[in-house]
Design brief:
Blueprint (H helix, E strand, L loop, with lengths): L1 E6 L3 E8 L2 E9 L6 H14 L9 E6 L2 H15 L4 E2 L9 E2 L9 H13 L5 E6 L2 E7 L4 E9 L1 H11 L19 H28 L6 E5 L14 E2 L3 H12 L2
Parallel strand pairs: 1-4, 4-5, 6-9, 7-10, 10-11
Antiparallel strand pairs: 1-2, 2-3, 7-8, 8-9
Amino acid sequence: MILCLDVGNTSVHGGVFHNENLILQFRKASSYRGSSDEIGIYLRSVLKENNVNPKLINNIGLCSVVPDIVHSLRNACIKYFSITPFELGPGSKTGLKINYRNPIEVGSDRIANAIAAINQFPNENLVIIDFGTATTFDIVSKERIYMGGTIFPGIQISMEALEKRTAKLPPVEIIKRTKVIGRSTMESIQSGLYFGQRGMVKEISQAIIDELFSEHGAVLVATGGFSNLYKDDNLFHAIIPELVLLGIHLAVINNS
């Protein structure tokens, strides 16, 4: 079994693969970093609570956009699983050509998404939209060239900004809205968050296609924690919330 860990700014998204099957997913807040012992005990506990024997984990893959947690996480894997984790990053075998001025700047989570999307949709131009702490767009050509992307504040960040930078606007639950016009402050914020993000995604997706793929088009793939918010909006060809875990899993196999 392979344990895959995606360390984001908001949470650690973990998954366990048995052969090719993702049999378990879990999340842990990453705002509190924790020691290697705390992380190791947590990982073993969450596996046991979900009927996965930690002794059956024979490989661990890791990608992180939070550098200061990597040291503790690596030591936790070594101490509690006797495994030095594979860390997706510069120099890893990905099958991608990175067309970025400085390839090191590309986040490992974005690379993992690209790897997985290529595997799911071979020989297609791809636009991958990740609804995480930031909403990111990653563009991959059918020749497996990572063309670059766009980064936009995520829906959660937008809500927190309204709360912190205004005197009277409260935090709200982020939900799908059916009507644009809100009839209370809460509904108005929810509407702005939902439709604002949706409109941004539609506009930028079309602009990317017009700029790079006007002749053949592109497959739009959504992922990330808030992607299912738009599952009935016909914005995407596919919504795969676990895309980053699939990419880490593939990277582990390719680099073993």
